# Entry
Amino acid sequence: MSAAPKSVTPPSPFKVAVRDLPATRTVAVSAAFVADAVKGLPLRDALDGDAATLDDGGTAVLELYGDEENVHVSGTVTGKVTVACGRCVGPVGLELGEPVRVTFLPPHSMPADDLASVEDVELGENDLDVYPFDGETVDLEPLIREQFVLAVPFAPLCREDCLGLCPQCGADRNHAPCVCEKPVDPRFAALQGLKLPS
Ligand SMILES: [Zn+2]
Ligand SMILES: [Zn+2]
# Structure
């Protein structure tokens, strides 16, 4: 250790100083981190129990290098996030492992919201995602959070042919068929509600 740091804040595993680039950073992702990242998603909040006790989490292995302006980050975020099945509300463990490739841009080159200026930013052909940074320190936390959010599909299923809950009695039809009548086909239900002029 050389000069004493100005601040006593402990170094965050998510933060990488531009002066340390190029660098490879391995970050352990805890269940609590995942729980915070996906909090508020309806099919996450529908899960029973304490989210922090799930065996969610993972590991981010990211390589960072800077050019004169930007910081390019690539690697993988692997791990698991649990959500509720869109039909039966049972737990569904989703695996992460897609490659990540993003570019961090300093404030003056962050594109405005209009698409025209996005095209002005010179990005590699696979750099679809951009994040801001202050020019000195890259914060990997929002990038890693987003990977867990992106892993949750609009309608996750515990299995393709999940039978779901009975809309009338609420029984989980994966475990046992219930005795309710088969619901009327919604197309005919609409017709039944139709008042024909007499
Ligand atoms: Zn299900
Ligand atoms: Zn039923």
Observations:
- The first strand starts at residue 15 and ends at 17.
- Strands lie at 15-17, 23-29, 57-66, 71-84, 91-96, 99-105, 129-132, 137-139.
- Residues 133 and 187 are 52 Å apart (CA to CA).
- The pocket of zinc ion (ligand 1) is lined by residues 85, 87-88, 90, 157-158, 162 (CB under 6 Å).
